[in-house]
Write a structure and sequence with these properties.
CATH class: Mainly Alpha
Helix content: over 70%
Order of helices and strands: HHHHHH
CATH topology: Arp2/3 complex 21 kDa subunit ARPC3
Shape: globular
Strand content: under 5%
Largest sheet: none
């Protein structure tokens, strides 16, 4: 029972942190290209993937996406955000399992996949004309993924020891 409570507390902490990062990002001025953003909350998703595994990262990501859509963005954005979050997390979890990339590489690919998933939803909803944004979304995915990956790698390195000690007690 104590382990279960610790796990719930950890997920709640990660969701809260991801939500705070989403709030901070919502306060920042937007970029000029639709769909391109920094993705600060993905630092927490990367951290969750490395420490709690796929299931924990999925819980954190889904709860954060739904809360952010309800409070900051609106329900239409939920469709785009869910597609990007779920598909990119699946790919990142697979890459982590295959051990082919560092956390920075996983984050870069995750950023690209996230944007491509959202672009696919936009194509279904708005038509193929939105593919004109493809080069910008690809570049944005690489750059934001690199930024998030570097920060995530530093944080994960520092958090993993504390996280393992948290579960030993």
């Amino acid at each position: 029972m104590q382990q279960r409570n610790k796990k719930i507390a950890m997920y709640a902490l990660l969701v809260a942190l991801a939500f705070i990062f989403s709030y901070v990002e919502a306060m920042l001025p937007g970029l000029q290209v639709p769909g391109v953003k920094l993705g600060l909350a993905n630092i927490v998703v990367l951290m969750a993937l490395e420490t709690t595994g796929f299931a924990g990262a999925l819980i954190v990501s889904l709860v954060r996406v739904v809360l952010s859509a309800l409070i900051f963005k609106g329900m239409l954005s939920l469709i785009y955000s869910l597609a990007g979050a779920i598909i990119s997390l699946l790919v990142m979890a697979l890459l982590k399992k295959l051990k082919l990339f560092t956390i920075v590489g996983i984050s870069c690919i995750g950023g690209i996949i996230h944007n491509m998933a959202q672009l696919s939803v936009a194509c279904l909803m708005l038509g193929r004309a939105v593919t004109a944004y493809l080069p910008w979304l690809f570049a944005g995915g690489v750059l934001s993924g690199l930024f998030i990956g570097v920060i995530g790698a530093v944080i994960v390195k520092r958090v993993q020891k504390a996280y393992s000690n948290f579960y030993r007690k």
